[in-house]
Amino acid sequence: MKETTDTVDTGKIRTTLNKNKAQISLSLKLCVHCTLCAESCFLYMHREKDPVYMPSHKFINSLGRLYKKKGNIDRKGLEEIREVVWDRCVLCTRCYCPMGIDIPGMIALTRGICRDQGVLPQFDEE
Question: Which residues form a coiled coil (predicted)?
């Protein structure tokens, strides 16, 4: 198990964001907030249609947040993003975007960023 620290390697986050800049930027521009993706998300449908479970909300409030901040985020912010991409998404890939945004791919990319920083879900209490 990787030991967590309070530091975040923002340079490594920026490198990942820059490597995927074209796809991230286009995806953020393509999202018209139509909410059609929500109907295909079983978590959204079974959690009383709570907006925090909408695929577009998860994408914008995780990778979109990192991208807007250019990777400049602290551990607390990364923990909040971890909650979005792991606790509110099972990565079932059912979410459908009529604009062609690869929401599961964006969530997976964000999980990778969190994983690289040692920010992972805790499954066991120690």
Answer: none
